[in-house]
């Protein structure tokens, strides 16, 4: 395990991004390894971990710049490429995000029934072997679209990406890649729980995390009403906005129907015993992951009461765990009992 001083030296001595993260960002394993290395080093040199240490602060800034430089060349498809579907043509713009299996691009509609000139986001896998996972993303977002098109469930729509279109792109290399087209998220000030955790490596206060967790439970309960399991409830897949307070559940590429076995897992993510054993999963599998996530976010600041609540959702037998829907009322009671009357507490998000 590196010390803070050793981490500072390693970052300072790196001449290029490749010195820290490897030669390329073109396949899944290096991407995941680099992400873990980045977060591990950032926890050691973050100003919250080493207050007043100017070398650590400089190292944190350099580390972030090197990681950004490392991820930039791995766009997967150059800006200006046009993707076609039966409904529209989409011109890719800048790379704006990298998930476990796919890149996210700004794009605009050139022509089509979905609205010429409209701004959208395209999700395109880096590896064509992930095409099946992109199809799962399409199926789940379609199911969520049907759910939220009904009046009494429309309020859930903000918890999920909104699907616009889907298609298959034949690249210049002759390889087909499935892709989905989604609505861009409105407004500034978004960050993933992974970014929040990196900014607060010792954990955040339970009163701050409570509103995020409560909305995550609503998102999971809504998803489970479609008969599907998320399968990847981890920090990179939960997007947070603090004003207004909003959570968006991302990463639906790993989803399956309840009662099925997961098609893939995310390196480094916590999974319940049934998933690790290759057995069918259920909504209670997501509940397990959500409460591992809760303990990760609270970190060293977790109180005995918070740990006890989470552990009730981490039992080995899925049948002994509550459903997300049942947990909502229980968590509301827990919030009232533990933190007292609810009040607005500003929570500044790290730069996303």
TrEMBL record:
GO function terms (MF aspect): ATP binding; protein kinase activity
Listed InterPro entries: Kinase-like_dom_sf, Prot_kinase_dom
Stretches assigned to the Protein kinase domain: 90-352
Top-level division of the source organism's lineage: Bacteria
Protein name, per record: Protein kinase domain-containing protein
Annotated organism of origin: Nakamurella flava
